[in-house]
Specification:
With 359 residues, this protein is α/β, with parallel strands linked by helices. It has helices at residues 14-27, 44-47, 53-62, 81-88, 134-147, 164-180, 199-211, 224-233, 245-258, 296-308, 312-328, 348-358; strands at residues 3-8, 32-36, 64-67, 93-99, 112-118, 128-129, 157-158, 185-190, 218-223, 240-243, 266-270, 275-279. Strands 2-1-3-12-11-4-5-10-8-9 form a 10-stranded mixed sheet, sandwiched between helices. The structure holds nicotinamide-adenine-dinucleotide. This is Isocitrate dehydrogenase.
Length: 359
């Protein structure tokens, strides 16, 4: 029986790359009944919101979604539609594998890292106080009284909550991922020497979880600044990286850069029961409708989805087909050509055709 999965085409280049990914998944032979759900800038006029409740309901019902990028419209009350989806569905773990494929221009040849980012806490929790507002002045006064430290009165304040429970579940996710995917090491990353009660707590909770995996998966800790340097010097020294929200956001882009950039970087967001698969890149509005951008990141996100569905063979087959097309450097989009103006570059849909032919 076909498995029902929510497909959110997204906006901007979203519909182009998600159609490419959908066609590739269908061509693997895995039977999927796609339930199309709307979201993004293009549906605000119709629903009065970029994130209709029916779309969230569809994901809750089907438990798995493949999602195209969504533009965050200015002035709708949403900081980001993507962050709103993660919050609404409690998708606490963001997974970003960063792997070099032969044929993609990058500084390193054999990077194979996985970044696991906590998705719900930290400075990203959205608890912010605007400079000059009465409540901000009140908060500054109370913090000064409690901490006996001075804060400039013209400050804005962002709050950084990091909890034991939130940390334990993300570290457990990282270790379980490592076990399932035959990885060797989890590195917890933080800045515990400076932020003892948040980042220090992150390490303490991580160590407790790590003990449960002793003898099976190695555990180590790195400071965020040190690992930034070590990663650009020797990315091969790391395996699975587990980070709080903000460091995870920054480091996953750094790691995407190590393997050739946004066009080839897939991602996924996991909750207890729900998983949403999406490319790291955004809606690249300037390329909308041109059938020009690279569909690889979205297709590789679908590879992760197939793996999650237990369709290991189809997942491996699709990844191999993408790798083959990229390595041949022939039927690839402009950004994968040595010269971005190369007239032999193919379109988004033609690259998907080539992947399907290579299956
Ligand atoms: P972006 O990723 O959309 O674009 C940055 C640049 O990267 C583009 O100009 C383009 O040159 C390149 N690029 C991105 N995807 C590409 C692809 N598949 N092939 C080739 N080149 C590609 O980032 P942005 O311009 O900062 O954001 C545009 C919109 O997307 C914003 O509204 C932002 O909020 C949203 N966004 C959404 C997501 C998501 O849906 N998960 C993620 C990031 C940004």
């Amino acid at each position: 029986m076909a498995r029902k999965i929510t497909l959110i085409p997204g906006d901007g280049i979203g519909p182009e790359v998600s159609t490419a990914a959908r066609r590739c998944v269908d061509a693997t032979g895995v039977k999927i009944d796609w339930e199309i759900a709307e979201a993004g800038a293009d549906v605000i006029a119709k629903y009065g919101t970029p994130l209709p409740e029916a779309t969230l309901e569809s994901i809750r019902r089907n438990k798995v979604a493949l999602k195209g990028p969504l533009t965050t419209p200015i002035g709708t009350g949403f900081r980001s539609v993507n962050v709103a989806i993660r919050k609404e569905l409690d998708l606490y773990a963001c997974l970003r594998p960063c792997k070099t494929y032969q044929g993609v221009r990058s500084r390193f040849e054999s990077v194979d890292l996985v970044v696991v980012r906590e998705n719900t806490e930290d400075l990203y929790a959205g608890i912010e106080f605007e400079e000059g507002k009465p409540e901000t002045r009140k908060l500054i006064g109370e913090i000064e009284a409690l901490s006996k430290k001075k804060i400039n009165p013209d400050s804005g304040i962002s709050i950084k909550p990091i909890s034991i429970s939130g940390t334990k579940r993300i570290i457990k996710y990282a270790f379980d991922y490592a076990v399932k995917h035959k990885r060797k090491k989890v590195t917890a990353v933080s800045k515990a020497n400076i932020m003892k009660f948040t980042d220090g707590l992150f390490y303490a909770a991580a160590r407790e979880v790590a003990r449960e995996y002793e003898g099976r998966i190695e555990y180590e800790e790195r400071l965020i600044d040190a690992i930034c340097m070590q990663l650009v010097q020797n990315p091969g020294g790391f395996d699975v990286l587990a980070l709080p929200n903000l460091y995870g956001d920054i480091l996953s882009d750094l790691c995407a850069g190590l393997v050739g950039g946004l066009g080839v970087a897939p991602g996924a967001n996991f909750g207890k029961e729900i998983a949403v698969f999406e490319a790291i890149h955004g809606s690249a509005p300037k390329y909308t409708g041109q059938n020009k951008v690279n569909p690889t990141a979205m297709i590789l996100s679908a590879v992760l989805m197939l793996d999650h569905l237990g369709e290991k063979e189809a997942s491996a087959k699709l990844e191999k087909a993408v790798a083959k097309v990229i390595a041949e450097k022939k039927s690839v989009t402009y950004d994968l050509k040595a010269d971005r103006n190369d007239p032999t570059a193919v379109s988004t849909s033609q690259m998907a055709d080539a992947v399907i032919a290579a299956l």
